[in-house]
Write a structure and sequence with these properties.
This protein has 135 residues and is of the alpha+beta class. Helices cover 33% and strands 33% of the residues.
């Protein structure tokens, strides 16, 4: 089993910085003067980039040279708390030499059904453990 860690530190207001094991930073901001993405926007971004990695890799293996590729993702949230996503639409938009709609659809489905770990985590029951450590 593989373990990933991220340390999140409060910066004031509703602003946080996450630092990964490798030292990379992620700014999460739900304050009135947003300078970063909200937690729920970050979740959509994680899903979009996870599936993008897969699709680009599949296209490379099929020797299809992408000249442009983007993902548009939208999430519908529940009205009641917890305001989780109840539906997420992921739109893959690509252009490339030798690219067919069928090849793009196949790569996207492979990602969403088999490879994308973020999507699989969203579809799974995840065990949460909460540990309290006052300083």
């Amino acid at each position: 089993m593989s373990l990933k860690t991220l340390q999140v530190t409060w910066l004031g207001e509703q602003r946080y910085v996450g630092v990964s094991e490798s030292g990379h930073q992620l700014l999460i901001d739900n304050s009135a003067t947003k300078i970063g993405v909200s937690p729920m926007e970050a979740l959509l971004g994680a899903l979009a980039t996870c599936t993008a990695y897969d699709v680009v890799q599949v296209m490379g293996k099929k020797r299809i040279k992408l000249t442009s590729y983007r993902i548009e993702v939208e999430g519908e949230r529940a009205d009641e708390h917890p305001r989780r996503y109840t539906r997420i639409v992921v739109r893959h938009i690509a252009r490339g030499e030798g690219l067919t709609p069928e090849a793009l659809e196949r790569a996207a489905h492979l990602s969403h059904e088999k490879y994308c770990t973020v999507g699989a985590s969203l579809n799974a029951e995840v065990d949460f453990e909460v540990i309290i450590e006052p300083e």
